[in-house]
Design brief:
mainly alpha, 58% helix, globular, 8 helices, 2 domains, two-stranded antiparallel sheet
Length: 180
């Protein structure tokens, strides 16, 4: 019960500071998507697909494509794309977008991390791993970034991962804020 009281105090303090509703302030503090966020996420996925037609929940393409028939690849692609557009997938995209809102863009690609590494940053930031919640899929991070207009470059031929133009310095600041 004490944890709940402490959370309520934090939420009310944030409400007073930001003018947000109780639900929005609580969502921000817990790293959850606000209830009205799915339309934003759906729009981000649509823009991402226009920019890079290979975007799926897996990342770019499907897992281990070289060992599958064309029919199996097509079936898996459709399943992975459908997941990305499902409520659960869109919730992941929104979590990634909220994390990306905190990042700074650079003129060059940050080659210290790929989308797969960034998705782990989002998991830590949003508390999903700590809550034993579903992990963030690589494609959710890619879709959010592409939908928000970040520059991207595939890691290498056949890789599901991409490089993004994110500031390493800002990434460390956001990580430090999360840890404190």
């Amino acid at each position: 019960m004490t944890d709940q009281k402490d959370l309520k105090k934090l939420v009310r303090a944030r409400m007073a500071k930001t003018g947000e509703s109780y639900t929005a302030a609580r969502s921000q503090l817990l790293g959850e998507a606000p209830p009205d966020s799915l339309p934003r996420a759906r729009g981000l996925v649509q823009v991402a697909i226009e920019r890079e037609p290979r975007v799926t929940a897996f990342g770019l393409g499907v897992y281990d494509q070289s060992k599958k028939t064309a029919d199996a690849i097509d079936k898996e692609f459709k399943q992975d794309r459908a997941y990305l557009l499902s409520d659960a997938g869109l919730d992941e995209v929104e979590a990634c977008a909220r994390w990306l809102d905190l990042q700074l863009r650079t003129k060059t690609f940050n080659r210290q991390h790929t989308s797969y590494g960034y998705k782990h940053n989002v998991e830590r930031w949003s508390g999903r791993v700590l809550k034993n919640d579903r992990h963030i899929c690589n494609g959710a991070l890619i879709a959010a970034a592409l939908g928000m207009g970040f520059d991207f470059k595939p890691d290498h031929g056949g890789s599901p991962n991409v490089w993004l133009n994110l500031s390493e310095r800002r990434l460390k600041v956001v990580e430090a804020q999360r840890a404190s």
